Amino acid sequence: MAYEINNSCICCVACKPICPVDCVSVVDDIYVIDAEGCVDCGACANVCPVDAPQPV
Ligand code: SF4
Ligand code: SF4
Question: What is the pLDDT of residues 1-56, one digit of tens each?
């Protein structure tokens, strides 16, 4: 399992520095999670103001 950032993302940047395995990246101004690297810790979801990262 991994987390995925949905369309609610407002690009606030909060999730990127908090990820312990640095698997949040920005591609064409859209925040994406590398599903291979994600260790499913939920830290990004905890800091996100709009609940955009969801387990998939
Ligand atoms: Fe990174 Fe954890 Fe979010 Fe996965 S769930 S992207 S490991 S902060
Ligand atoms: Fe987007 Fe939430 Fe990450 Fe902010 S914390 S960049 S709103 S996914």
Answer: 899 999 999 999 999 999 999 999 999 999 999 999 999 999 999 999 999 999 99
> Residues lining ligand 1, judged by CB closer than 6 Å?
3, 19, 21, 23-24, 33, 38-44, 53
The answer to whether domain 3-55 has CATH 3.30.70.20 is yes
Q: Which atom of ligand 1 is nearest to the CA of 34?
A: 6
Half-sphere exposure of 51 (CA within 13 A, CB side): 0
